[in-house]
Amino acid sequence: MPKTPPSTLKSTVAEQIEHSVEKLKHISLEEERKPKKSKQKLSFNTSEAATDTQVIDTPDHGYCRPKLVQSKEQDDKVTISEMMERFSVNVSQMLFSAIGDKISMESKLATISTIYGMILHCHNVKACAVQRIFTALCIRYHADNKTTTVMVYIALLERLNKHIEHVQDDAMSQKSEVCWMPVLMKNETCYSDCIQIMKSYEKQILQWYTKGGRANDLDKLKIPVGGDQLTRVRLQGAKACQDGALTAADRLEHMEPIIVEMFHTLQDLLEKMYKRFYKTSSGRDKGTLYNLKLIIERSNVNGNVKSRFEAHEDFVLTVGNAYLLSFIMNKFGMETLDAEPQHPLLKNRNIKFMHNKYKEEVFHTIMGEIVEDLICTFPKLEPKVSLNVEIFNSQFTVNSTVGEGKMLKFELVINNQKVLFNVSLEDAQEGVNIELNMLNRRIPVRISINEKDRDDLQSYVFQFLQWYFVILTFKDAIKEGDSDRTNITLKFCIPIFFSHSILSKYLEECVDYILKTEVLLTEKLAMKVRYGSFVNLTGHKGENKAADLQKENEVLVLKELIRGLGSNKTEKAIDTITKAAPVIQDIVDNFDKMSNISHRNTHHRKRSSEGDIKCILKVIVPLKIWNYTEGRTLESFKKIKKSQFDFERCQFKEAINRKIQRLKRGISVPESSDEESDQE
């Protein structure tokens, strides 16, 4: 492409310097330089007459007050050309006096011309900077009619709170005091070592309370102990081994209750999610998790959540966000994210100029529709089963519910007689033939479950979003330190873990946590347990984190200190350096703060989720996920259920009741029942 020729009206630098030199030649250099007069500033007093003006002398470095408008009817009106002439003379005189008389006249003129050109260049640069600012603002807000469209729909979100308030909001916004514990050379897989770990806790507590003059508080002291699932089971078993000891300290009575922590529960939930929706054989199934992983090239996602938790979590949140946006675009008839939403409440109504009360009404109405269409809750009643009944080549559709003993009961009227059918669910799934003897005649009846062709892709995405919403709620409840929402989320996790496997370990942990904090413990101790699951290191609102996640971060610091010992890794050296870890960490943090060294949270670059979401939308929007397509199948997810709550409720209730009765007696799940026997 040929370049655009330069404008003929634009002067070159050489021409500007030559013009400046010609102007300087007309200036009388021998003229006696007089000290310049002080600038005059006009000050208007509105209380006096309009014709009365006050002239105030100001020094040379004085600046005019902004937004002063001078009268146009002044007698001493100065034109712009005269002002420029005076300014040029003053500038030239100042430059001549600054240079001095030690150089020739030609050198003076060349130097002054160069300086004058630099002044003009600086002025142009500042003007360009201002112009760039306005240009950036126009680009930022599009500088077109789209700005109005965007602001109309942003106005619906103006009154939404960034934080969901709860009862202990103020208390959970205060900074937590975290005490580091030294490293113990013990192994949790051995009960004898677990007992030694618990006794070390008892010894440390006794030392603290004795030195603090609060030894009398030890009689009624209860301190919660938390960890992952294996830690809770092993410490609970170790504590049970000491029930026959003579003293309260030997019986470990101060270490109660022993509960599971939130971060490991969230991690296990994410792991179960990948086992449900992530299969390496689904690369050709468009719109699935593995297919989208290949498209956006997330090479750090391999399905092993424990190895790279943050990468897997970020990928799930990115895909869930894209699925949700595709639903919103389909509901509001938007072909692109920049399109105008189409909705009866938004049509022919200028929401921007409505009162906040009506904005909230519109917002809640629209959000109610979205929640009703998209959120699936645990059904209060037993879901009905559609049965196909065939009698003499005549087919009927009957709805029945699963009763006691997994039996399906329904009535039919045959030859003006009511007939009660009682069929097991397993027989109905395989198809069962029954012969009726009526009026000395055999009537064949075939009963089977009426299975329609499903839309596997829509069911896959719909169930994925249910898990996605639970994870979002769980993360937000932890950040806010909201124990009520945390317990509600754990109750949602119970059927989710059950749908994965009846032997899921964290299914029992969720039941145990809720049972202790809402039923077994006193109100004061339950409050202590629930709000002790979070820590706030900054003292800001909405910046809580799970206590076990903070412990994992402390372990990283301890490992770094132990690694720094080199070859001197003796048990005594490790014990000494880990006891000094909090002091060393404070010294390092203060040094970094005084040296203005920014803290790097990670060594890896985090990809922009916005670009990945747009890339995913280009793939899933043409699939029309939310338009039901009968018979659309996924090879790796055939007949996937639309809801995570689609299972046998009778079996679910029986399993939960058995776990509750066992946990009340203090019997934990055996360690041998691992996830190897998981069944979908």
Automatic annotation (TrEMBL):
<dbReference type="Pfam" id="PF20231">
    <property type="entry name" value="DUF6589"/>
</dbReference>
<feature type="domain" description="DUF6589">
    <location>
        <begin position="168"/>
        <end position="604"/>
    </location>
</feature>
<dbReference type="InterPro" id="IPR046496">
    <property type="entry name" value="DUF6589"/>
</dbReference>
<feature type="region of interest" description="Disordered">
    <location>
        <begin position="24"/>
        <end position="50"/>
    </location>
</feature>
<feature type="compositionally biased region" description="Polar residues">
    <location>
        <begin position="41"/>
        <end position="50"/>
    </location>
</feature>
<feature type="compositionally biased region" description="Basic and acidic residues">
    <location>
        <begin position="24"/>
        <end position="34"/>
    </location>
</feature>
<protein>
    <recommendedName>
        <fullName>DUF6589 domain-containing protein</fullName>
    </recommendedName>
</protein>
